[in-house]
């Protein structure tokens, strides 16, 4: 780079190797966080030259993180952002497909379903009518496995009901077809109730739960989305003041270059729109979570099993989120790089459509739009205990089978027990937690 190069600022940064994409990404993130948009733009352009979605694990991950930073910049230009996203729909057929890729290419969800099913079998050992509410019902393999296990139960299988909740009717239709077909083949007493609903809009009072049903509720990688908070309610200036300031910025825009206006607008955005997460354990800061747990508790479930990402990404500070997201997702990209072929189309779709979408939401979004608010097990334990639930220790049955499942993928996959819950790890880095709960009677 010569002294007149637009990349000259890169020479002045504290990191030494300009070929290190993670170091450059962090410096670009700092530029975005402080409103230095021109420098961020230069850095992101340089990242695009040294990273690729077809490269190694680091290059692929940095590609999606840099894309997320770009989206964060343009989100402060509502017209530009909406025009770039006008043809995109919130739900597509590919959403379910990439979920299946994640289920198959990584052992995390299979491990979760194996441990969950064992907990259900043990909790419902003497029950005649077992009712499961699946709060994100999209993977038939778990419940087919449960049908096969319960079919062998001494004294005969229970009558099994599954209420499946999902945003898309066609997903539930497929679940209904697969499960009722398998139950018919096994001559298993079974009913499936489809409920088309978003998680936060589930009407617990009108679910088809009958007196005498032994109830189990499962929630896989969904509960954290209820931690999203509304910036309109906390820390915002009045609408009149906001309109006045927007008008002033519009008047002065003609006196500055576009880059200067954007940089100034970004700084204003950070000053006027702080994140409203507050204390992650405060029901007042996440009212949806408080109401949801309260409604769930009223059903008096015999068992609740929750699977969540083991990471602390419910932070208001952008740089804290980026550092922690890099720590979490670097392990995910590493395990995929170690266990799945580089040219796998399924891996490419999983990373570009699922992981990239999560990263974009973590970095580019704030307030109620930021759904990927992962928290660690210790916080979930405190939150659920505060809501009136008590832990159910996960038994040792099927742990050998679960361990063998992980080893089939890679010896670097491990699990460990913590606070009567299980953590699934890549090497020694915990990535997902499985915990079981019951209603405090």
TrEMBL record:
Motif (VHIID): 130-134
Region annotated Leucine repeat II (LRII), chain positions: 174-206
InterPro entries per record: TF_GRAS
Presence of the UniProt keyword NAD in the record: no
Cell compartment(s), UniProt: Nucleus
Keyword list, A-Z: Nucleus, Transcription, Transcription regulation
Residue numbers spanned by region SAW: 364-438
Region (VHIID): 99-164
A cellular component annotation (GO) from this entry: nucleus
Keyword Transmembrane helix: no
LXXLL motif, short sequence motif: residues: 223-227
Family: Belongs to the GRAS family.
Protein name: Scarecrow-like protein 3
